[in-house]
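User: Okay, second chain of the day. Same drill as before: sequence in, structure tokens out.
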Amino acid sequence: MNRLDRQTTLYLLTALLLPAAVLVGLVNRSPSRLVYDEPYHLGLTGKIDAKGWREGLLSDQHQSAAGPLYSALQLAARPVTHLQAPGIRGINLLSLAGTVAALAWWLHRATNASPWWACQILAVPFLWPGAGMALTELPALFAFTIFGGCAAMILASPSPPTSATWAYAIGGGLALGAAVLGRQTYLVAVPAVIITAIYFRQRMWPLLTSAAVAVITSGWLFFLWGGLVPEHLAHADAGLRPEYALLGLTYLGIAAAFIAPPSVLPRKWGHLAAIALVSLAATAALYAYFFYVLKEPLKPPAAGLIKRLVGPQLAGYFGFLPRWLMTAAGILWLWVTLADAWRRRHEPAHVLLVLSLLALAAAPAKVSHLFSSRYVIGALSLMVVQFAQPAPPRWTEAIRSVIGTAIGAGILWSYYGN
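Assistant: Same drill. Structure tokens below.
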């Protein structure tokens, strides 16, 4: 076995098999009661099952602001899961497996990157709660990843469009529509597709077709609701919260720290020092804004895990340092992304990827009632494609996968314990 084969084998053991085994084990041993937001989303499923799709979606007797994709999958799996925990959490495990497979297909067919980079998504710690609980993010992420691969195939296809190009356009539009029906935040990808279509006219009509199919597939829901969320949950869409976009940026920065190869980091110490100072000021301003303006505390990241490790009295004091590091990572990721976008501004696939990434990074600002790291999970498959390299991942990625697995498992365990 040559050196590359040994590296790939080590990587697969640590970045695919290890996290998969840990995650399946945690879900299998998870509590039979519903945890966190599971009762809200399963409540919508129950209303749909009892009243039918239209009446269930219009009912004000539930607290789920998500669309019907989650309920459709849960009802389809009912003969196996009986709508009981922990069986219902298996839907998200399958969705995660599908996401990794779709990412590998995307990287293999539409880029020059190694498909093994798809496994690196499992290293992101805040993905684990969405993957290990019966929540709405993972099925939508799976559908969105299929759309991303289809869009990349459209942009890589010959001109004029072939029948395969049109098939990808329709299939990608259906997948994007399904993603929107899972989590409304994916709507921001539609303008990104339209802008890319206008900017690169050689692929205009297939891209516009994909956007139109997505709007048709998902638009009926917002017509039914009369808005982006059910009427009785309008407080979740009551304005803009720019501070939530900044919090989303910090979580994307931490995701990049687990995904991106070290080669993307700036080489000049002056740049890193400037990022450290700017992020320190931004973190202090964020804390001041929450404390003095919003009159509410800014919870530390992975608050449940930190409280279990150091106790609720000390948890608040442990928040500033990780927030500072996350803000620095977020600013660094934004810097690298914008610089790379300018350098590759003539590559249609990269333009669409960056537009979608930035839109999804800003999307939490529209969720006005609270912030959760789950709201930026939708950007993770795009980030993997952003940083994937032609060479397979190395030992540095394997180490980060082990660290991410340990942190992610701890966060998921803390949710099960609450």
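The first helix runs from residue 3 to 28.

User: Thanks, on to the next one.
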